[in-house]
Amino acid sequence: MLPRFWRKIKYRYNLIATKCENCGTYYYPPRNLCPKCRRRSQIVEVKLSGRGEVLSYSVVHDVPENMKEQKPYVVAMVKLDEGPVITAQLACEPREVRRGMRVKAAFRRCGEEGEAGIIYYCTKFVPE
Ligand SMILES: [Zn+2]
User: Fold this and answer.
1) Arithmetic mean of pLDDT, 20-35
2) Strand arrangement of the beta sheet that strand 16-20 belongs to
């Protein structure tokens, strides 16, 4: 059993979801119980494909000081092929994005923090 912290990291960085084998529903973020099946839940961990399509999006113009270099940016609700919907940044030009566009998950630099210059990565989506 991994410590909680590392489990979280694992889920975030690898797009690990849980799936209820009883009804076939995927959960992301992962859940330990299927609310539909409850005691009949059969939860297993699965890696999501990271592929999906843009359900909706918005262009953010009001960008915090430390993200100025990527202004403006696109935030999209992405419906993954397995079913879960994720809200994440879309790494493309605002004029490129449209609803129904196919995208895939990628790891991108999200920011840098403090004097130590620790670089954070997170899941973003890129056009497929
Ligand atoms: Zn279920």
Assistant:
1) 94
2) 26-27, 16-20, 43-47
The residue written with tokens 């696109």 in the block is: 74
Query: Backbone phi, then psi, for 121, in 5-degree steps?
Result: -115, 150
Average pLDDT (26-43) is 94
Q: How much distance in Å is there from the Cα of 34 to the middle of ligand 1?
A: 5
Residues with CB under 5 A from ligand 1 (ion): 20, 22-23, 34, 36-37
Residue 4 DSSP SS3: helix
> Looking at the predicted structure, is the pLDDT value of residue 112 above 90?
no
Contacts of 54 (CB under 8 A, 6+ apart): 76, 77, 78, 90, 97, 98, 99, 100, 101, 103
